[in-house]
Design goal:
Chain lengths: 260, 271
Amino acid sequence: MTTTTPRLAPSPTSALSLSRTTATAARVLRQLRHDPRTIAMMILIPCVMLLLLRYVFDGSPRTFDSIGASLLGIFPLITMFLVTSIATLRERTSGTLERLLAMPLGKGDLIAGYALAFGTLAIIQSALATGLAVWILGLDVVGSPWLLLLVALLDALLGTALGLFVSAFAASEFQAVQFMPAVIFPQLLLCGLFTPRDNMHPVLETISDVLPMSYAVDGMNEVLRHTDMTAVFVRDALIVAGCALLVLGLGAATLRRRTA
Amino acid sequence: MMNKESGPLADGTDEEPATPAVHADGLTVVRGPRTVLRGLAFDVPRGQITGLLGPSGCGKSTLMRSIVGTQAKVTGTLDVLGRPAGHPTLRTRIGYVTQAPSVYDDLTVRQNLDYFAAILAPGRAAAERRRTDVTRAIDDVDLATHADSLAGNLSGGQRSRVSLAVALLGTPELLVLDEPTVGLDPVLRRDLWNLFHDIATRRGATLLISSHVMDEAERCHRLLLMREGEILADDTPEALRTRTDTDTVESAFLHLVDQAVEASRTKEHTR
């Protein structure tokens, strides 16, 4: 055995290192590649649901337009919320998180790595779902489908952020899954999918004003009805992006190098 | 008194600074309502294997987590490689293996190591060194034939060796190994102890290894015997046997435990 193995130069921990972030993203995607069933489900289920929805509202294509567009924003949020919360919970319980934080990995690297990996998946998922809805199922969208895709991507980031954040409060997979009805369902009910938000009880309408999913759905509907990028669309997109960044920051605060 | 047989430090050829690898004084750790470590004071010399022994629940893992810098609520002095424990520059200089193997079950052995190596030495410039480092670590723990198996499909002993291989990446100066040989067969255990000695003598690293298998204690240069958050003894195995007039470290340990129990009992009586 050789004794003079070259020492890897110690590189200091920085808040965000591009190569550590991409290494983390590549690792997360590699883990998923060993689990093709999960990938298939993440990508196919939104398409199947849209297909189902199209024929549920066979007689009223206007309803399909509105609900379909909203769902294009909601699917990525829910899927990414679920996979991220379980993935980070696993990372916490398997000891790999402790190991990583004892290494020169910045918290930002880990979070950005997850966001990058699941963001990539979200692009594929949303591109397929949007393509299917617009070109095959005849979703009547006035604006550019690219804007639909943009909102879907922001929603996926928001889902990743929320999943990462709540995983800190879940001690088991059972609890993590229960956060889905706790965090997502209220937003689903109040986001304007079932009834326009201004028809709700004023208290609920106010609550819906501060929930990020409301703006995700609003944004989708703006694209549906307007040819150009409207000011409301820009506002909606910025709010969703801002919420995602805020929650990612909160998620970073839940990663502690020292634990009891 | 036993300097004759101690490691490479004693012969003066080592250029390591004179500070010990780990220096603790008044080290206290509180977890919830319990005080897990009570004012520990000890030194771990460089370039040697120090065994950390004691019954389960005595605070071995907490002590190791404190040294690595992942334990919260640590008070007192704890210097590691000349820096306060948990200092950011220590993160590349310490290899740490937790009791439960902490690797990704849904990655192959090589993919696991590739990832952790990329965290330790990021960037394209280090790619070549990373590759040799990963291959060496896999060879060290004798998993070359399983390099492309999923970690989740390996046996318990194999998975803990993957976890050990991760700690060997980057040639750390201090290896903190929490029960690395649990659940391994005698042949593997012997091979790993040979590896540990090799790492200490040829690579000049310091190893702190916890165990509750007493025959492994005989293979350490020094021993820290722990019981209920306190250090019972800090000596070489031979000195321990001589002092307690016993043949094995196991009986020396039992002797010391009995003594400690006796002492605490009389203390209670006199109160």
